[in-house]
Design goal:
By secondary structure, the protein is an alpha/beta fold. It is built from eleven helices and ten strands. It has a single domain, classed as Rossmann fold (3-Layer(aba) Sandwich). Strand 1 and strand 2 form a beta hairpin.
Length: 316
């Protein structure tokens, strides 16, 4: 079996004395898409920033290992990051309305990427930039190069961000809730675009979302995070068919179409605890209908794809 493209082992992230990600491990194979799922506050976005080397150097501690194609990223210099970020690993952020510099044209944004990671300038850069705009479905790409961000819709801005991320031809694309700020019709278009480009470019992807209904469309496997820890991981088909962790099952039950039901959709009572105030034992036990005494005092080990003292039935 070949080594994974990305291999994260025991990743812990703390701001001061407050730990927000706790010993998180996962891997992504070449050409594979992994969904990272959980509610807001579970540690998804801060994990993506760690993978991109974008966490603040002061006041933040990162422990563990992040291997990208065998290269350890947690210890490389700022200069080395300039060669990794964008050309080996790239990211599409969740809010297209604020991610683009309002004082730089669309072509200017792409020219910076192409200059830094591909060494292109002048006419060659403009031609390549127009090609990427065309590939992400932007009409009249030559004219759009001279457009300002405020002249584009939210969906168009997100397509520009995808073009910028892919222009460096990265091996791994991180998509951090890339459709959250868009209306439903545009969401589907962006998801279909990411699926098409991933297959066309044989690219690996980490897709971050709170919605299992979305991750079903794009991912091969899914890892469910809760309060900074991994609760369950497995093939997307198995998780959707027979989740074993009560939290994963609760996420599924809150999405229309996954479970036969009568009346209102189910919700998970309570909310994700704040970092620094994690409960003892299993962090999900205050919200879990299956919690037992052991859940309140002992942290479950992650074994056979799940961290739970009292899992639901189904295949491990």
């Amino acid at each position: 079996m070949s080594a994974p493209l990305l291999d994260v082992k025991d990743l812990s992230i703390a701001f001061g004395a407050v730990e927000v990600v706790d010993r998180l491990s996962f891997s992504i194979g070449r050409g594979e898409a992994l969904g990272l799922v959980g509610e807001s506050g579970c540690g998804k976005s801060v994990t993506s920033l760690a993978l991109m080397g974008l966490l603040p150097p002061r006041g933040c501690t990162v422990r563990g290992s992040i291997l990208l194609d065998g290269q350890e990223l947690t210890s490389i210099s700022r200069e080395a990051w300039r060669h990794v970020r964008g050309s080996r690993i790239a990211m599409v952020f969740q809010d297209p309305m604020t991610a683009l510099d309002p004082l730089v044209t669309v072509g200017g944004h792409l020219a910076e990427v192409l200059s830094l990671h591909r060494g292109l300038s002048g006419a060659a850069s403009r031609k390549e930039a127009a090609m990427w705009l065309e590939r992400v479905g932007i009409p009249d790409p030559g004219a759009r190069l001279d457009a300002w961000p405020h002249e584009l819709s939210g969906g168009m801005r997100q397509r520009v961000l995808i073009a910028m991320a892919l222009a460096g031809r990265p091996d791994l694309l991180i998509a951090d809730e890339p459709t959250t700020a868009l209306d439903v019709t545009i969401q589907v278009q962006i998801l279909d675009l990411l699926i098409e480009l991933r297959r066309e470019l044989s690219m690996s992807m980490l897709f971050i979302t709170h919605d299992l209904g979305v991750v079903e469309r794009v991912a091969d496997r899914v890892a469910v995070l809760y309060a900074g820890r991994k609760a369950e991981e497995g093939p997307i088909e198995r998780i959707l068919r027979a989740p074993r962790h009560p939290y994963a099952e609760g996420l599924l039950a809150s999405v229309p179409g996954f479970r036969p039901r009568v009346g209102r959709l189910r919700s998970i009572s309570g909310q994700v605890p704040s970092p620094g105030a994690w409960p003892e034992g299993c962090r999900f036990h205050p919200r879990c209908e299956r919690a037992q005494d052991v859940c309140r005092v002992r942290t479950p080990d992650f074994d056979a794809g799940i961290a739970c003292h009292n899992p639901l039935g189904g295949e491990p």
